[in-house]
Write a structure and sequence with these properties.
Elements (H helix, E strand, L loop, with lengths): L1 H17 L2 H35 L12 H30 L4 H18 L1 H15 L8 E4 L2 E8 L3 E5 L5 E5 L6 E3 L5 E9 L5 H18 L8 E8 L4 E9 L4 H19 L8 E4 L5 E4 L1
Keywords: Cell membrane, Membrane, Transmembrane, Transmembrane helix
Main location: membrane
Family: Belongs to the MscS (TC 1.A.23) family.
């Protein structure tokens, strides 16, 4: 009998709860508010992100010019911060509507964050360093850089790690906190320097004229050259050669290819004009007072 009365009482309480119109009205209002918070938060995120994109929109005629790589990086970073911040506030509002006291939650989150901060100092250092790498535009994806004496092309920049691919295919992963020295080869124009050796028997004025003709052709054919190539003159006097130096200003990180092309063009033109490129010679003595030169 006791068990029967207990189940009967429990049934009556559940029936009263289920048929309570005020309770369902409150549940409905809470559900509507939660839906409204979600919808409004998404609308606000879209509006704010559109405003951010408008602010960072590149204008060719603007008086304040910024590198487009830096503009895109900063735009993505600000959009992510805005989205996470607004969604976090929306979650707090939903928890408050569900009757959860936020004070203990925030206090626990603060204590947990403090403990994690002490236990993951290297992670915090990586994130802070990654933020300043992006903010200061030290390098961007696609740049050729030397990081901690390793050279390669940047594949990915994150708040925690940076990936660099060397020209032989290896991928190097650097925690941002360990990056102490960076050399960026993709920000400014580079200089192609070619040393040309000719025999002492050659007429240097004729050699200079030929070099001028070759450099004029190179300026037209090699699109990576951005300024008039220069002949600096005699650079060194060697045991069997005179070394002349020519330079050409190139687009960022294209000087290696320009060097190779210039050498090939100069070598071809020298052959056509009969200008000798020096090579080692040996003088062999044959008897008293006789000698024979051999290559």
């Amino acid at each position: 009998m006791g068990d029967g009365k207990f189940f009967q009482t429990l049934y009556n309480q559940m029936y009263e709860s289920v048929t309570n119109a005020d309770m369902w009205m409150n549940v409905g209002m809470v559900a509507l508010k939660i839906v409204a918070i979600i919808v409004i938060s998404r609308i606000v995120v879209s509006i704010v992100q559109a405003a951010v994109n408008k602010v960072f929109q590149h204008r060719a005629g603007s008086k304040i010019q910024m590198d487009q790589r830096r503009v895109d990086t900063m735009r993505v970073l600000v959009n992510n911060v805005v989205r996470y911040t607004l969604y976090f506030l929306a979650i707090l509002m939903v928890l408050q509507l569900l009757g959860i006291d936020l004070k203990p939650v925030l206090v626990s989150a603060g204590v947990l964050g403090l403990a994690v901060g002490f236990g993951a100092q290297s992670l915090v250092r990586d994130i802070i360093t990654g933020f300043f790498i992006i903010f200061e535009d030290q390098f961007a994806v696609g740049d050729v850089v030397t990081i901690n004496n390793l050279t390669g092309t940047v594949q990915e920049i994150g708040l925690r790690i940076t990936r660099v691919r060397s020209w032989t295919g290896e991928v190097h992963i650097f925690p941002n906190g360990t990056i102490t020295q960076v050399t960026n080869f993709s920000l400014q124009n580079t200089l192609a320097v070619v040393d040309v050796s000719v025999a002492y028997e050659e007429d240097l004025k004729q050699v200079e004229e030929v070099l001028k003709e070759v450099l004029q052709i190179a300026k037209t054919e090699l699109t990576d050259i951005v300024a008039e190539p220069q002949i600096l003159g005699v650079h060194a006097l060697g045991p069997s050669e005179v070394t002349m130096r020519v330079t050409a200003e190139c687009k960022p990180n294209t000087h290696h290819g320009v060097n190779r092309n210039l050498r090939a063009m100069i070598r071809t033109e020298f052959t056509k004009r009969g200008i000798q490129i020096p090579y080692p010679k040996i003088v062999a003595m044959q008897g008293k007072g006789q000698s024979q030169g051999q290559a």
